[in-house]
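Teaching assistant here, posting this on the class forum so everyone can see the example we discussed in section. The complex has two components, and the goal was to see what a joint structure prediction looks like when all of them are supplied at once.
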Amino acid sequence: MEKTDRIELVCPAGSLPALRAAVDNGADCVYIGFRDNTNARNFGGLNFDLAAAREGLVYAHRNGVKVLLAINTYPQPDTWERWVKAVDAAAELGFDAIIVADPGLMRYAARAHPQLRLHLSVQGSATNYEAINFFHRHFNVRRAVLPRVLSVAQVEQVIRNTPVEIEVFGFGGLCVMVEGRCTLSSYVTGESPNMSGVCSPAKAVRWEQKPDGLEARLNGVLIDKYGAHENAGYPTLCKGRYRAGNDVYYAIEEPASLNVLELLPELARIGVVAIKIEGRQRSPAYVAAVTRVWRQALDHCLRDAAHYAVQPAWAGELRKMSEGQQHTLGAYHRPWK
Amino acid sequence: MKLALGPLLYYWPRKDVLDFYRGIATSPVDIVYLGEVVCSRRHELRLSDWLELAATLERAGKEVVLSTQALIESESDLKTLRRIVAGNGHLVEANDMGAVHLLSGKKPFVAGPHLNVYNPETLGLLAESGACRWVMPLEMPRAMLEGMLRAKPAAVATEVFAFGRLPLAFSARCFTARRHDLPKDNCQFCCLEYPDGLELTTREGRSFLVLNGIQTQSAAVHSLLDEIPALVRIGVEVVRVSPQSRHTTDLLALFHRVIDGALDPGAAACEAERLAPGAVCNGYWHARPGIEHRGGNS
């Protein structure tokens, strides 16, 4: 693949104000979704109808910023048409690319809109170059977003063996499971990322203050319980505390968020073409702050990778945005596994 | 309807694995999936051992399918995958799109349960690539499966995961090693201690999940045994039972008798419940949370 001297900063937007915040603070691309289960952030009050999408496209394009549409859940027999319409709308509105997970839908897009650029979503679960090359051969996929399971060396191995551009997650919520291959949420709540575009949905959450602590339940299942001095977190299934033997602990993952600022020179060296920021459910203020920091970091790194170092001000700003949570390098860093 | 034994998801000592499949050779199962699908560090049996087992089971009249690893990360994972795809006459179950890519147009394959086949268009694409059978995603409800079956290509047979703890998720991280405070690279093969996985309960003692290395399973045991007549009616051709450390051949016998019409499905389901390592569930089939259990027949 062609070596790039540029890494695109791909930022999330769940609303027009968030899209403007991303554009104004230095995003190269903004990704959004429609207001239904055709995308993996199908949350109430979030996302774009056609009019808002049109307005967002105009604003971004006027500022030289690309807009990508996530259509990254799995269409089902009775609702196939909804996904097809989303693809058609993307082509008609002039999105710069669509981010798709389902092979059948990708084939539809490639045939009906050959000029529409295709990105393989992280929900497509392609963790190796053979899988990515399947999507390239059949649908001419131009870019793949890697699941958050590979080490840096493994990402490099992928890049060396595919003509498809590679985008990786850089910051935000951390899926500890392979995206697209996790049904924990539907096991407990009936709704999963693949079919419904949600994980551990808010409508299934119940908070109950008990004499001995605050309980967080998901469809009745106790995900965690917090003492008076503990910060209560959102009860995402894989970030609960459970009992194994005599121990109660974060059996799957601590409520940490991903931050790979320190790996930027490494990611640039191996040929990553884009860094994705998670968080379409986040506020415009969050998107603005995170985009600003990452823009500065990327500019520093691309100007002079040899002297790049994470600046304390960046780290401080990002820490504020992560609700006091700890940061992790996740699977990029071997010992995490 | 044919009866299949899914791939062994747990890590058992070599002798236990060989004893287990010796029992399977004389059981009433038609199809046996073999191979390591969860973790590349597991080595009690090497690929050559699995191939030897495959030959033995074929001599016993079983159709053998070699399953590929669900989560493929490294070049060495890919090497193993290529050997499975290239080196023998067996049917292969593709459990990721990398496997599909390598098999595509070269030989027929089974599209495994982790490929995310949620619509007839994707199934059609896999059929064109060579899929002769597909395994329904675990979370797919009955009504949606019926929609799939109405529109699926005629040449593709349908298989449903019908008994066992549900493999719900995969991760780069090993949760069993994490439980033992060990790094994955030096896990000391602690999965060997848990022949049916390591149980997690909620903080109020409700049995919830099971850790199986990098895989997370339901603690409850998904059972569609009492749905066999419905499965036959809508056109499912194969039902899969997932191996467990005890009573697997008894469970296969129950399924076999129900399929043959020799045993009442409800009575068989009650019997199976006693042989399961946890409470039973079937919510997914009824478009409910998978953890739920609905009584009665449909």
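For the discussion questions: The mean pLDDT of chain B is 96. Chain B touches chain A through 71 residues (CB under 8 Å). Think about how each of these relates to the inputs above.
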